[in-house]
Amino acid sequence: MTTKPFAHLYLFTAGALALPMANAAFIEDGKASLNLRNYYFNNDFRDRPGAAGQSKTAEWAQGFMLDYKSGFTDGTVGVGVDALGMLGVRLDGGAGNHRGSSMIPDDSDGSAVHDWSRLGLTGKLRFSQTEARYGTLQPKLPILVANDGRVLPQTFEGGMLTSKEIDGLTLTGGRLEHTTGRGSSNRSGLAVAGGTQESNEFLFAGADYQLTGNLKLQYYAAKLEDYYLQHFAGLVHTWALADNQSLTTDLRYFKTDASGRNDSAGGRAAGYTVGGLGDTAGKIDNDTWSAMFTYAIGGHSVLLGHQRVSDSGNFVQLNQGNTGEGAAGASIYLFTDRLVTSFTRAGERTSFGQYSYNFAALGVPGLVASVAYLKGTNIRMVSGGDEKEWERDIALDYVVQSGAFKGLGFSWRNGMLRSGVPSEWDQDQNRLTVSYSVPLF
After folding, report:
1. β-strand partners of 399
2. Please, what's the b/e burial string for 150-173 (b: 16 or more CB within 10 A of its CB; e: otherwise)?
3. 181 backbone dihedrals φ, ψ, rounded to 5°
4. What is the β-pairing status of strands 409-419 and 215-224?
5. d(Cα 24, Cα 47) in Å, to the nearest integer?
6. What is the pLDDT of residues 55-65, one digit of tens each?
7. N or C end: fewer C-beta atoms under 10 angstroms in the chain?
């Protein structure tokens, strides 16, 4: 697959110039920015046998994201439009270094394309404290998190309604139909990990209720047609212990059951199936809970937690990895969704910890470092036994706080995975990112 380098950005510019000029608020409240992201991705598979015939991925790309958000027209119902033009340019990652569509799309011969682009448009309406959006969306909800782990982000297509008419209560609902993966210009339908048949209906609704200043309650429900029905309940509480000290409790519970064709043997045989080991092969059936406790004092932050996945099947959320080129790459609303793996296999019990330090406490604002360690045990195996795995992650971020380069960001991520699960393999991963946002108006 190849594209003309700036085709979509030209289209976006032409569209922006054609915006209605009759309403001052529509224009005057609009904002536009050019977001730049330079991304190097290296994943070493440690020469393990069976690692797809390639022991390493090493790719480098430059991303350009032209983001325009209009204001709303005056009146009882305000009207607006947003546009997002994206362009990725390969800087390195030729033959021998490109292993599938992790970041850069595949060309017709299986190599990495030189450039790729896409355009997303979103219409929006606002009435009182309620906003409706239809078009290109990037949800960040407990039941769906758009992935932003490479040079260009994943996007979805559909409609979404958000209402804040009642103080402290945010209601959210919507319907999604398609997605475009982080390593593609092509949209696909929706599915789960292991599913080869696409669904074109993901319905969701939920509520976030700020009961008090330090306690938030959450409930969401989601249904992916012919795959699953999922319920989520969450609680986040922050306890101020003393000046500059706090203890945050974060509890999350997911219940996910088969729905539609995934609930029948014939449907699963046709491709409406899920990967991983479960009580019934290919059938979605899962309960997952996690608890995290974070103690913060000054610049220090210490997090400890535990998570359990039921023996009946893997944790499940949207994942299009088996539906087409560039569709792979998904995020989930769990702390265990880390650089290399996610610790969500049937039966897996994961204990984890993280230490972070914000150097602003030492007079260096913008510099933050962290190290995390996760160990999963009791992973259910076909042999009838169980396996284990662990991951160690290091993160270092710095954002320039003043001067000519204010806002320039640097990021380094290093992850090390050691797993006894044959399909996972041992991996060492590094990610280097330089980002900058240029406000246009």
Report:
1. 409
2. bbbbbbbbbbbbebeeeeeebbbb
3. -70, 165
4. unpaired
5. 61
6. 788 899 999 99
7. C
Query: Which among 91, 206, 185 is positioned nearest to 139, based on CA atoms?
Result: 206
CA-nearest of 286, 290, 329, 59 to 193 is 329
Bridge pairing between strands 215-224 and 228-242: antiparallel
- Determine the Cα–Cα distance for residues 8 and 11; give it in Å rounded to an integer: 5
Range of the structural domain that residue 126 is part of: 7-439
- 188-217 pLDDT, tens digit each: 999 999 999 999 999 999 999 999 999 999
Spatial contact of 208 and 198, defined as CB atoms under 8 Å apart:
no
Nearest CA to 286 among 211, 246, 230?
Answer: 230
Say if 1 falls within a structural domain: no
Q: Is 396 helix (H, G, I), strand (E, B) or coil?
A: strand
Number of domains forming the structure of the chain: 1
User: Which CATH number do you get for residue 109?
Assistant: 2.40.160.10
Q: Is residue 137 part of a domain?
A: yes
- Whether residue 404 is contained in a domain is answered as yes
Residues 6+ apart with CB under 8 A from 314: 193, 274, 275, 276, 277, 278, 286, 344, 345, 346
**Secondary structure letter of residue 365 according to DSSP:** T
Q: Provide mean pLDDT across the span 87-109.
A: 81
